[in-house]
């Protein structure tokens, strides 16, 4: 048990590898949510964040069954009572922090994703792309005309037009990058809270007393006449 506690302390103090907490349990949970997000119907998404939250809460109830085994495996250096405290904290984080945050991000992102990140409805996507191309042409023409911008060749208008036509694709790229960053932020914050809960258990009196070595009490020997005498020490006076 002492070796397990030392390993946990080194990880908490930053002296060991900065591995995800509990084997990446929160990250694995969000990955499961992402794999199942495609199952959200358009009607469910359009009804708002609360309905989406309930959809993923049902998935969480099915996934949370393995949390206890994960905590027992990765917190083997802690006594059972401390493991139960950490398990309760993980469940609280999942229900009150991770799930609401994910539902909010997923609702907003799924609506945009299913419209290919255009601002206009699907029948008007071509018109929107054309409008962005015209806007790029106008911006390029302004850049060539403006005396305070060191661009004079009219050929520079063409790159502005191309950027305008590709603007929805550029917007898609940055939206995906931002979404992934926000999901990673949820995982990082949850891991920090689990790390603090683990440290709190390590510094509690119950864990400290459980880690203290227990010395064996010499076994007494009973004589034939029932008199008890202590076991003699071997190998010297």
Could you walk me through the main structural features you see in this protein, from its secondary elements to its overall organization?
The protein is mainly α. It has a domain at about 1-120 and about 175-210. It contains ten helices and two strands. The chain has helices at about 1-10, 25-35, 40-45, 50-65, 65-75, 80-115, 125-145, 155-165, 165-200, 205-210; strands spanning about 220, 230. Strands 1-2 form a two-stranded antiparallel ribbon. Strand 1 (about 220) and strand 2 (about 230) form a beta hairpin. The longest helix is centred in the last third of the chain and has 36 residues, at about 165-200. The model is unreliable at about 210-230 and about 235 (pLDDT under 50).
Question: Topology, please?
Answer:
Blueprint: H1 2-12, H2 25-37, H3 42-46, H4 49-63, H5 67-74, H6 80-113, H7 125-145, H8 157-165, H9 167-202, H10 205-211, E1 220-222, E2 228-230
Antiparallel strand pairs: 1-2
Helix pairs in contact: 1-9, 4-6, 5-6, 6-9, 7-8
